[in-house]
Specification:
By secondary structure, the chain is of the alpha+beta class. Helix content is about 30%, strand content about 25%. A hairpin with a 2-residue loop joins strand 16 and strand 17 (about 300-305).
Length: about 450
């Protein structure tokens, strides 16, 4: 009697991407390019979704779990890719899987890696993953006592999801104290956080020093595929000044990590984390995103995220081959070992975000977007905070409005194409950093 070979994962022909940002715009674009993919719906999408051939927006909010289930069943969707962290923390992947759908994205239990800083730090400590020392006080008095004992500036992190606004990297003890008091005065509480469960509302960490890099693993909970490392630019101002944002630009592959360095991250960080999740009975299927700082003592985890970074995703998607849809389906199905190898173009990819006036504090909305930039083989425009009016006019509808992305043989050429493209984009109050990629460009 002979045994049959394992079935090879197929490429899904009908997909749904959940989310409305630039990350989801880029994911839909990349998946639609995969051979065998016929239709990609984006729920709810944004002003740029309908301009992508083969992509269609669905006016269903990511919080409408029942509506998403019905939409997938009616359209015979073969793979759902959940983009943002909020719906994952709220259990959207669990609800979809419970309805018999195949989902790329962890359940609410796995999403606690991002939804609760304290939970993630506890798991890292148990797994032996290198990270900063931390404290998780439950009262203001306890937090201030930790600060007094340390006598140094600390990093202050709201425990739950805070849309990028819950972290303060303090330069002084006074700034640390102010950040602590702010969190206790108006707590950030979100699904999956320890705070929402009556635990610590914040985490205090020792400050680490060194360059930051983002590493993404596509995983079925056991096996994984690593993407090229990327580097984000969080600060609003040139020279990495001003307040933190969701991200003003990125580039990949970041030369901070070569092949040996990436393998070190796999062995020291990613594999122990997956084993620790398995030890807690969590089957993690989706993106495992490690935000790292490369310190003098080696790489250390700043934070884990349960989804693609934004704008790193926009930077990475154009580099990935047509096997992407099959690889994501294999992750979601628990058989990544049977997936085709994911090819990565040996090119440099650059991304710069155009933001609205007033971003990140009070972004202005409703300005008409004049976009004469035409898509090219090596240059893309991915919308984020935009909406399409019935008249056909595209308006700003968020802080980060869109991103221009380009690929070339070197970073100077890639960023040159991006900034030339930005000259063909206009809306009132438009702002962007002109020094994105300063680490790898000749400025």
């Amino acid at each position: 009697m002979t045994s049959s070979a394992p079935l090879q994962p197929s490429t899904p022909s009908r997909l749904l991407v959940v989310g409305s940002g630039g990350r989801e715009n880029a994911l839909a674009w990349a998946l639609r390019r995969c051979p065998g993919v016929e239709r990609v719906w984006v729920a709810p999408g944004n002003g740029g979704t309908s301009s992508q051939p083969g992509c269609e927006p669905l006016a269903i909010a990511s919080s409408d779990q029942g509506g998403l289930v019905r939409a997938c069943q009616e359209r015979q969707v073969e793979l759902v890719v959940v983009g943002p962290e909020g719906p994952l923390a709220e259990g959207l992947a669990d609800r979809l899987r419970g309805a018999g759908l195949t989902v790329f994205g962890p359940g609410a239990d796995g999403a606690r890696l991002e939804a609760s800083k304290h939970w993630a730090k506890t798991l890292m400590r148990e797994a032996g993953v290198p990270t900063a020392s931390h404290w998780a006080p439950t009262t203001l008095a306890e937090a201030l006592a930790v600060l007094e004992r340390q006598g140094l500036p600390l990093v202050v992190k709201a425990d739950g999801l805070a849309a990028g606004k819950g972290v303060t990297v303090a330069d002084t003890v006074e700034a640390t104290r102010s950040a602590i008091e702010e969190i206790f005065a108006g707590r950030f509480s979100s699904p999956g956080s320890d705070d929402a469960r009556g635990g610590a509302p914040l985490v205090l960490e020792e400050r680490l020093f060194g360059p930051e890099v983002s590493v993404f693993a596509l995983t079925d909970g056991t096996a994984m595929v690593l993407l090229p490392p990327a580097q984000d630019h969080k600060r609003i101002g040139e020279g990495d000044t001003g307040p933190n944002t969701g991200g003003m630009g990125a580039y990949a592959p970041a030369p901070l990590l070569d092949a040996a360095g990436l393998e070190q991250v796999r062995q020291l960080v990613l594999e122990p984390t997956l084993r620790a999740l398995q030890g807690r009975g969590i089957e993690y299927r989706g993106v495992l995103f490690a935000g790292l700082m490369l310190t003098a003592d080696g790489p250390k985890v700043i934070e884990f995220n349960c989804r693609f970074g934004d704008p790193e995703c926009q930077t990475l998607m154009p580099l990935l081959g047509g096997e992407l849809a099959a690889v994501l389906l294999a992750c979601a199905s628990g058989n990544l070992a049977q997936a085709p190898a994911l090819t990565v173009a040996p090119r440099c990819s650059a991304c710069v975000v155009a933001a609205a006036s007033g971003y990140p504090d009070e972004p202005r909305q409703g300005d008409a977007i004049d976009l004469t930039l035409l898509p090219e083989a090596d240059r893309q425009v991915f919308h984020a905070g935009s909406r399409l009016e019935p008249s056909g006019t595209c308006l700003t509808a968020g802080g980060r409005v869109l991103a221009v992305v380009a690929q070339a043989a070197d970073f100077d050429a890639a960023f040159g194409a991006v900034y030339a493209g930005l000259e063909q984009v206009h809306f009132d109050g438009m702002t962007f950093r002109r020094d994105i990629g300063h680490q790898v460009r000749r400025l």
